[in-house]
Amino acid sequence: MDTSLFPDQIFTDPDPGAHSPHGLAYDMHGELYNGDLQPLTPEQKELYPKVLGLAQGVNDLMSAIDSRPRPKPRRPLRPCPPTK
Description:
Blueprint: H1 42-62, H2 74-77
C-alpha cells in the first residue's frame, strides 16, 4: 500500500528488526524487502488498465472461461508461433 495515502491508519512495528516498520514485504524474487511500496509512475499508471485486462484475459484463457476480457490476449499472442 502507498503509506502516503493512509498516514494515520497503518501499523507501525516499534521493533521492526530486518523488515520494514510497516510489516513484512517481499520483492519479485521472494527475498525479504526492507522498504515500503513506491507509488506508480505516470507511465505505469497509464499502462495499468491495459496490463490488468491482458492478465485477466490470459487467466481466463488458461482457465477455459469465456469472459469479456478473454479476446484481448489473443491479439498480442497471435503472431507467436505455436509450440511443438
